[in-house]
DNA sequence: ATTTAATAGGACATTCACATGATAATAGAG
DNA sequence: CTCTATTATCATGTGAATGTCCTATTAAAT
């Protein structure tokens, strides 16, 4: 579903959100904990820092922290840079022009579904994931309304 | 959302379904109509023939026809060979073991959504798409003729 | 000031999906 | 049988995503 780069980014950010309470988290630590290629992860984190999702500190005792409150950090914010998920909302058949007015054969059937996926990434925050642990749909009450 | 190969396959099958009434459809015709690379499309069609979605006929007046009734041909049947969409139902964070019992942070939020997507591909048939034209959800006024 | 531990970042290597081109195999038509 | 239009198949090219390596830069600690 996600490119591996986007997936790494998301996992890393979640890890940082969970471990940055006592200061910056080092790349090596994340790479080891999540079994990711260290140098490649380094670039991804740097990219996340450039887009404001993370903040980096160099030198001794350096590392990465969240660049903004976990409550205002959506999965879309994290993943967008590496995986243009918005593009998936467009035509499933790849037509350059596909809209309500010029609908392809699958347009109406695909539209609502793709919008749900987009909403999922937009509305889910890092805070929700790391705090609520799992948000089990049966044991926990559902979201009342929107 | 789909790999371009899978997208080509789907578009090609829909085209064949719409044009195979008067005999087999040639690769060149499909490639030209859909603006797809001819040789690459040829391989995709052959692959679809090997999986039973299409049937090929060689020689003069040859080409491709549907290998089974459009009513029993799901989008999943067409696309599966080229794009393991079922795999997207698995963990969004790429964990090898992610289930209701061993849930990752996003498991419960992602599960229902990914199941909907899987259902879409399994339940939507080629027949529905080529016959119903568009299946407009709000106003059914335009669907009458054509 | 020097040492040390960390990120920054360019250059390069690898892999794979995507695509092209040429040739072989098949079968209908004359 | 021969010609020709079609699919079948193999060899190869291309570019983007992924991954590695090495050096530069930064800042705390000594």
Name the descriptors.
homodimer, 146 residues, mainly alpha, two-stranded antiparallel sheet, 6 helices, 2 strands, 5% strand, elongated, disordered C terminus, DNA-binding
Write structural notes for this entry.
The structure is a homodimer of 146-residue chains. With 146 residues, chain A is mainly alpha-helical. In chain A, 45% of the residues lie in helices and 5% in strands. A two-stranded antiparallel ribbon of chain A has the order 1-2. The radius of gyration of chain A is 18 Å and the shape is elongated. In chain A, 30% of the residues are buried. Residues 138-146 of chain A have low confidence and may be disordered. Chains A and B meet through helix 1 and helix 5 of A and helix 1 and helix 5 of B.
Sketch the topology of chain A as an H/E string, one letter per element: HHHEEHHH
Name the biggest interface.
A-B, 33 and 33 residues
| CA-CA gap between termini of chain A | 25 Å
Spatial arrangement of strands, main beta sheet of chain A = 1-2
Unreliable runs of chain A, pLDDT <50, ≥5 residues?
A: 138-146
Mind telling me the C-alpha Rg of chain A?
A: 18 Å
Count of DSSP H/I helices of chain A: 6
Coarse structural class of chain A: mainly alpha
- Helix coverage percent of residues of chain A? 40-55%
Oligomeric state of this protein: homodimer
* Largest sheet: number of strands, sense, barrel closure of chain A: 2 strands, antiparallel
Count of distinct strands of chain A: 2
Strand composition percent of chain A: 5-15%
- What is the average of the pLDDT values of chain A? 89
- The general outline of chain A is elongated
């Amino acid at each position: 579903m996600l490119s591996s780069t986007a997936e790494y980014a998301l996992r890393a950010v979640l890890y940082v959100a969970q471990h940055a309470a006592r200061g910056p988290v080092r790349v090596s630590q994340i790479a080891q904990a999540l079994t990711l290629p260290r140098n490649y992860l380094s670039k991804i984190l740097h990219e996340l820092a450039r887009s404001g999702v993370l903040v980096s500190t160099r030198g001794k005792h350096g590392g990465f922290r969240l660049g903004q409150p976990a409550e205002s950090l959506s999965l879309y914010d994290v993943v967008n840079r590496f995986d243009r998920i918005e593009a998936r909302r467009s035509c499933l058949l790849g037509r350059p022009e596909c809209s309500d007015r010029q609908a392809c054969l699958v347009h109406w059937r695909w539209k609502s579904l793709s919008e749900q996926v987009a909403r999922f990434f937009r509305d889910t925050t890092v805070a929700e994931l790391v705090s609520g642990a799992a948000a089990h749909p049966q044991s926990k009450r559902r979201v009342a309304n929107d």
